[in-house]
Design goal:
Helices cover 30% and strands 19% of the residues. It is α+β, with helices and mostly antiparallel strands. It folds into three domains: 68 residues, no CATH class; 85 residues, Phosphorylase Kinase, domain 1; 180 residues, Transferase(Phosphotransferase) domain 1 (Transferase(Phosphotransferase), domain 1, Orthogonal Bundle). InterPro entries: Kinase-like_dom_sf (IPR011009), Prot_kinase_dom (IPR000719), Protein_kinase_ATP_BS (IPR017441), Ser/Thr_kinase_AS (IPR008271).
């Protein structure tokens, strides 16, 4: 055998190969561009850089190719006498299309929007009404709670308020509760807080919309039970929307709050009575959660978060109502808004604001006294 150099007709790379004497047909695969080379005469061109041991001249290194040479498949030689066909790119296997998920034979899932402790949220298309919707599929809900929410849905369907995400439908999908809501682009308040705290005046203004929505819901005997930054939505038009209204009972009764660390983020905003007796949570629990949420957006950290992720420490701190006060977090905060937060987060339910409207009025008074 003789060693000859061959030059790729496409990319110009030069390769060295052992060839039998008088072999009329020479077949080489370019190690750079993977094109099959047919050449009757070896190239006399000498590579500019000699190849290191074990590598052909002119070829890219394994790191440049993104794979080892052992992974490269070289096609078998073409038998003598067959016509010289143009290089062919191997046919790629046809990938089967992903199966479309349909719910209730009406909603076609398009993509996942997010995931939380209790389930996942998807963007879906309502084929019946030809519009995009948000679909939340929950986990860990028993039959009793599913039936409860389906009854509650009759009330939710009638709620019409500019600061409440519109409820559209609910049902059972493979044993799991699903809720269909209007789809609005934007971000949650929790996402916004990744940029840092919110100025007191803006924070107070934002929470007046939340309290307006809760007051409207209370008039229809609906208690939220899970107010927190993740359940307050800011649309692209800077409108404030409360989400998961009416779902709090399903969430708090689906999980043993005293035994799981999966919902620590929710517990930061819950009063002690709701953690101890979730079924007893009522309007005062929502008032507490609004106060805890306002605390978070003023200083960028949730109350009791200094307890870390240890449930025992958190429950003990809740029992003693022992959390770092706002003034210690930020001494420059106005006293008026600190008093509003602390009254909403009073340890005893009877010491908090009696209604959402009462707390909203206090925040509006603060805004009037602090026009800038």
């Amino acid at each position: 055998m003789a060693i000859h150099n061959f030059q790729c007709n496409k990319c110009g790379a030069v390769m060295r190969m052992a060839v039998r004497p008088n072999n009329a047909l020479i077949h080489v695969t370019c190690m750079r561009c993977q094109v099959v080379i047919f050449n009757n005469q070896p190239s006399t061109k000498t590579p500019a850089n000699p190849a290191p041991p074990g590598m052909m001249p002119g070829a890219l290194s394994g790191a440049q190719l993104g794979q080892s040479f052992g992974d490269i498949k070289v096609p078998p030689p073409i038998p003598p006498g067959q016509p010289h066909a143009q290089p062919q790119v191997p046919a790629q296997p046809v990938q089967p299309q992903a199966k479309r998920i349909r719910i209730k034979d009406q909603y076609t899932i398009k993509k996942q929007l997010g995931e939380g402790t209790m389930g996942r949220v998807f963007l879906a298309h309502d084929d019946k009404n030809n519009e995009d919707v948000a679909v939340k599929i929950l986990v860990n809900t028993n039959e009793k709670l599913r039936k409860y929410f389906q009854r509650e849905a009759l009330v939710l369907n009638d709620l019409q308020h500019p600061n409440i995400i519109g409820f559209k439908d609910c049902g059972n999908h493979n044993g799991r509760l699903f809720i269909v809501m209007e789809y609005i682009e934007g971000q949650t308040l929790l996402d916004r807080l990744k940029m840092g705290p919110i100025l007191p005046r803006h924070a107070a203004h934002l929470m007046t919309y939340v309290l307006s929505a809760l007051h409207y819901a209370y008039q229809h005997n609906i208690v939220h039970r899970d107010i927190k930054p993740a359940n307050i939505f800011i649309t692209k038009n800077r409108e404030i929307k409360v989400i998961d209204l009416g779902l709090g009972k399903v969430i708090t009764e689906s999980v043993d709050l005293t035994k799981t660390g999966q919902i620590m983020g929710t517990c930061f905003y819950m009063p002690l009575e709701q953690i101890q007796r979730s079924k007893a949570a009522d309007h005062p629990a929502d008032i507490y959660a609004v106060g805890a949420t306002l605390y978070h957006i003023l200083v960028g950290i949730a109350p009791f978060e200094e307890c870390g992720r240890t449930l025992d420490k958190l429950f003990y701190a809740k029992l003693k109502n022992n959390y770092i006060r706002l003034k210690e977090r930020n001494k420059d905060l106005p006293d008026e808004i600190i008093k509003i937060v602390e009254k909403a987060m009073e340890h005893k339910p009877e010491d908090r604001y009696k209604t959402a409207e009462e707390m909203r009025t206090e925040l509006q008074n603060f805004l009037q006294n602090h026009p800038k």
